[in-house]
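I am sending you the entry underneath: sequence plus fold tokens. Let me know what the token row says about the fold:
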Amino acid sequence: MEDTEFFDICEKEQTAATPFLEQGKDDDDSVTDQFWNVANQPKGHKIGEESEEDDKIKSKDASEGVGEDSDSSGESQEHHMNNGNNNNNKTMKYADRVWILNLRRNLNQLDNIAKEKALTIAKAREELSACQLRIEMLTKERECTETKIEEKKEAGNIAAVFRLQAMHRRLCAELGNEKDLESKIALMLKENVEFTEQQKSRKTEIVARILQEEAYVEKQKKHQARAEALRSQGKLQDSLQWRIKTWQYIENACEDPAATVLQKSWRTPSACSLVDDKSSSVVDFSKKALQDTIHENDDEEASQTLAEPEFTGLWSQECNLYKMPKDETDPKPLGASKMERKIFTENLEKLRSGIIRKQVVSGHEFKGCPFYSKPSLIHFKDFDVGKTYKKKIILINASYSVNFCKLVGVSEHLKDFINIHFDPPGQMSAGISCEVVVTFKPMINEVLEGKVTFLAQNGSFSIPLKCTTKRCVLALDKELIDFGTHVVGETISRTIILTNHGALGTRFKLQTSTGDNGTCTTTAKSSLERMVSPALDGITSGEKASSSPVESSIYENKEQVYPVHTEEVTLHISLPESQKTESNLGSSHIEQFSQDALITEADLETENAQSPAESPPEEEPIEITLGKVTEGEIGPFSSIKLQIIFTPCVPGDVRAEFEITFDNPNCKPLHFCVIGVSVDVPVWVPNPNVDLKICMYDRLYQDCIIIRSRAKAALRLKFEVCKELSNHMELLPKTGYIQAQSSFSVQLKFLPRHSLPEDAGKYFDTETRVLEVPMTIKIADKTKPVEFIVHAIVTTSDLEISPAEVNFGYCTIYEAVQTTITLTNKSILPQKFGFVGLPEFVEIQPSDGFGTLLPLESLNLDIIFKANKAKEYSFELTCKSEINRQFKLSCKAIGVHPPLELSHSLVKFAATALNDVSTATLYVINAHVSLNRFTHTVPRIGKGEIAPVGPTSFEFLVPEDSPVTIMPSVGTVLPGKKCLIQVYFRPVLSEQLIREEAVQMLRRADAQRTMLKKIHESEMQKRKDETVAGKKDGKKPSFAAFRQPLRVRNSKYAAASSGFEPSKPEEIKTNSEEYIAAQYSLIRNFTGKFERYIIPCFVASGDIDEKRGSENLKYSPYNTLYLELHCPAVAPSVVVTSNNGKNMINFGEVAVGHRIIERITIQNISQEQLALGFSILNPNGPFLLISPVGTLEPGENQFLLISFCPNESKLFFETLDIRTIKATLTLSIIGHGVAPSIACSVEGEVLDMGYVIAKEKVTSTFKIQNTSTLPLRYSIKLESLSQTRLKEQQRLPFFITSPPGRTDFVGTQNYSGLSVFNIFPVEGVIEPRKSQDFTVTFSPDHESLYYSDCLKVVLFGKEIARVIWLKGAARNHMMFVEGGDPLDVPMESLAITSPMSEEAAKGELEEPAKPLLLSLEYIQAETSGTPAVRELKIGAIRTAQFASKKNVEFSLDNLPLLQQKGFTIEPVKGTVDRGQIKCISVSWVPPADFDPDHPLMVAAVLTLKGDIKESYKVLFVARVVCT
């Protein structure tokens, strides 16, 4: 449906284009060329009011051709001239212009075709010269071979003669092929030359037509000017007279034969007819139009009426002219509105761009013929004129999708004979077919060629069409009849077959060639009388004469060869009807050639007449005659046997030549030659050469020799063998009688012995091994014996085996040993052989040791020996030939039974992608458990000692740099046990190969840089030249011209100026970009590789783990086991593009409990979509595949996210398999979980900041060291600043709830709300094995002894690595006492305390004594006790305040009482400097009167004097504790 609309649009656009084409002067030339045929339609000439009859006349004129159309246009001009309408003038000018433009376009096309043909002719001539050179070389080589054949015949070397005859046959065949090729090239050359001459003639006619058209236009202008002058002068008054004159002119014009021819020859031009080179319309018209032009130029003055306008009287002044309305007289063209012009322009563009549409399906554009024709050639063969032939062809849509098909037409010269019946089927899907019926009705008996053209949606296509006439194709089955040697008086007949391969019959006549007298005569034949036939064996070059194929090609057509007649030479060429007038093309050359041929033949006849051969004194008998059939009719596709009779009369050689002539002038005469030999002997041997072929020594050969007699009486015969061959050859019987005109048989026996070369002497050629023995038949009462020759080639029947003895050496029972021997046939005859009686442990390959050896051929045979038990082997292998000769081969071997065995000795890995791993599992088995050799086979070497029972060790020796890994490669197997062995195959690219590829890539990159540099330099030079030219012209150069070189000078291309020295392969580092790029390139371009490895496994008795020092276990190399591995490697379908293409993902060290995510990029490098599957990672392990991918398109990249979260401190390893249908990509995932560890300089858990004056600061520093191997990210947290602190403050104090231990570390805080303790820094990273210093600042704002806080070191934001209790005390005075038992809680009371009095603040009044409890426990053992010891610390705070008081004084009273009670105190009094602390040691030993049941209590006052005076009432409480 779409296609139908497409063609309808084209027709509408052509119709819409008609009014605009009338304005020829303003239109574009391309539009004129495309729609010139549309402009000549009747619709384009219809202007004003016209009758139906006028419309019919104009339509008929338009269909006749442009010429008549132009005439009718001229008449229309005269009809409307008085109305002042100039449209007709424009139409006339436009038609002429279109016609002349198309003629000129045809002229240009002819020029292009002529150039192409000239090139084709030049190539054909070169090929013809090369072919003639090859023919000349082959002819010389054939002549040389013939000479050698004669020489070898004279020398008697029959074997060489056979070889040379085979070479001669090959040369004759090649020479025949070359001559056929020469004929084809010459025929093609002739056709191209003729075509070129035709195109030249056609070009001349087109030029003549252009000149004629221009003259005709000029003539029309002159006629119009004369008519205008006559009307202006008013000479023509009577309209009736003008009508009469007009009708007379029409009558004369119709009677003019030239005008008639002109009208018949012109046709309506079309795009196909003008472009088609084979069209004859232009040629037909041009010849006749040229004659008409000459006739018109001669009679221009005589026929003055042609200058007057036709039908002028109809518009005389006396007539009532039709008054056109004003609207119709406006110069507005038909359909020329703006809307119509716009529509026309759009439709015209659609027509130009939409005739051929590209067909694109799934991104693939269809290219090629849209429809396939079956058959591909429409061939009407052997047609008869007048009959009708039909052929059905099938058109199949060969495009990708729906298409359409429309019939365009057939070639122009076939329109009268070919009719096409085709119903367009509309839409046709891909693969759908339709039928086309072609009807051919021949009217002329000529070969026709052309084509049928169709138009599809995506382009036009054509089907070649060919029509061939009936013709005769005659040939003989041979050109030489050799009767051989016959005795005088015999009659022998032979037949020769004449075959007609054509569809046209003819009469033939067989006769002797002119001048043939039965002797060996060479007859000259014209090249036009030859017929190329296959070369015959044994015919020398002198027996046939031929002329150059180039000369013969002048007279040959594509399919027929015409003979040259002696009376006249006529060129018969099948041309189209329109081109038959051109048959005289090149006639001067042909006439000259024919005259030369005639002169040559006439000279030969004259010479033969002037020097006739002398007639013999008596008439010679005719020995070669013809049979009964010498003439007759040979029908189409038939054959006739012709009989040739040989009747020898006179001894000697006889030769006769015959020819077969035909009534059909298109058939060349055929020639053949007959030869024979006559002998005159009463007894003869029909087969004088007895060929025994090839014979072997010590073999008996027999043959029967037939002897015939032509005598009329019985003869006594004696058969003799030369004495040299008497021991080898014999004729039986030695004497016999042959009856009159009968035959006699003699038995020939030949038994060649090895002494034949020495005995035969001259009759035996040692080089060629040819034996030629003359045998003699003596006839009684006859002096001349009859001889015949026995030929034979003697050869040996030996077969040679090399080497003569094979030693397989040591062979284990688990393997097979192979060795190669060479079997040579010493004979020149093929011999069959076979190794028979093979033992079960021997195998011979190929073909199990059977086969055929060609003459002198050597064949390699593999002998495979496989020991079945441990022993010494000695055996012979027997090879027999077909004549039952035996040849022996001695073999030796020692069987070995190793202590260990492999479960599999051959491992075939599956096709493994690069960087992938394939695994195979096998076992090493120790089956040796007993030394009893009677119950089972025991391991031993040959007949040696039995291997000991016990642990047996093994070791696999894997080659270095091999992709194979065996684990374990070393081990020990206990008796009756087996060891699991895993073999891994991981194909990788070798580092050396990658380095070499990297060097090559660097060189290519350097070459590219050099090229870019040269291009850039040339551009810079060009800009520089332009800048210089601009300065000369006064133009200011742009700044970019000077700035560009600066940028390039600093670019990477500047490196090439210093010269590039490629790195050596060993200098490329494995982590460099060049190495990675080369590896990636090799992986992408990897085509596959197969490697085979044989891994030895050494076996030794003993335990490998128990060997001492460097001593080795004793082992025997004969116990070695072998593991064969077949390792095919293929290109991967998925590769890793991230991480430099490595398949290993190393997370490194990660803190326990922390998660790290890595992103891996994979790419599909295959040409198909891949579905991905993933192996399952350990669900309880630290690795997790976060984002698996389902499919990968070709060339697509995807990301995989893998996380690592270790839960303990150790090394983790897992593999992730990415599976595709072709291969598996294995990713190795490694991660090390590390528990973070630190060391803190703070001893214990408490950092005591000491005492400080309230509202002053004190700092302390501690250090934290990272003792782990990974960086630690830390943060310092204070419990007082915790977000949960407010909630914890709402709870009851710990001393009320009485918990098991104190959990609240936050004590007194500042009243200001600022933190008491400050730490710097609060966060950061500590590198491995590094440390970080922290500064703690204590700044209380009031007096309290219970300042405290909790410091936490948090790692990675969640793990608490260390907890430190910060504590400090603040006082308003410079002294403090520390020690004793706590008497209150470490929390400030909520009660309101009274302020200190001013007197007490000034030191004038003393504060009440503060209680201080000091308890001591004396530990009483069985024999002795341990004194109780306590301390009190007196300190002075370092401060800048209280400058008047530099130290603190202390004293303790009631010392005697204390001593009495058993207390010892040191010191009792003293001073303490600022920033110092002194300890008062108190020890107690119970006095003698101490009552253990009642604790001892003693009080004393401790006085401190600093900035103020303070008193402490110390209560000493002592008791005894028993252990």
In short: The two ends are 120 Å apart (CA to CA). The chain is about 25% helix and 35% strand.
